[in-house]
Amino acid sequence: MKMKPTLAARRSRGSLLIGASRQQGATVLEIMAWMAIAALIIGGAIAGIASGWSSYKESKEGDHVTSLIANTKKLQAVSGYGASGTNLVPSLIATNGVPGDMTVSGNTLTNRYGGTITVVSTGLGYTVTTPGLPANACIAVAKSVSSAGGVTTKINSGSASTTPVDTVTATAACTSATNSLAFTLAN
């Protein structure tokens, strides 16, 4: 006498399954795990893009100040840059001395952080001031512009420095929510 098995046996993809049914699709837990992994990947990508955008803004702000310094130098006459206190922004705008991607409204220049940039004659020299910078931008711009040499750098209401500003000095001085940098050239 032959006995019949009590458990159903069947073949599925080459393996013997006894009393088990084949699972179709993914479980809710598997779907949630994949969604969590996808969220982490997307979050990391967004954080990387935001960090890159911040670095780009800092770099462009430094480039703008450097361009304004170089183009203001072209305005120099034998007697300097006009009377002390003269606003040189209108002359920079008229001579195409403002970077093309900088915000210009009338005779006003605005930096990437919303601050109004001024370029003012000191008589034989001039001062470029860029206010409204967050700490990270203040540090980056102070370092990059002051490293060119021949410029006096003042951060917020601190002492003016004729030497390149290093990271430690800039970090100690750029402590406000919005910081101001002033770069003065003597010739």
UniProtKB/TrEMBL annotation:
<dbReference type="InterPro" id="IPR045584">
    <property type="entry name" value="Pilin-like"/>
</dbReference>
<dbReference type="InterPro" id="IPR014911">
    <property type="entry name" value="PilS_N"/>
</dbReference>
<dbReference type="Pfam" id="PF08805">
    <property type="entry name" value="PilS"/>
</dbReference>
<protein>
    <submittedName>
        <fullName>Pilus assembly protein PilX</fullName>
    </submittedName>
</protein>
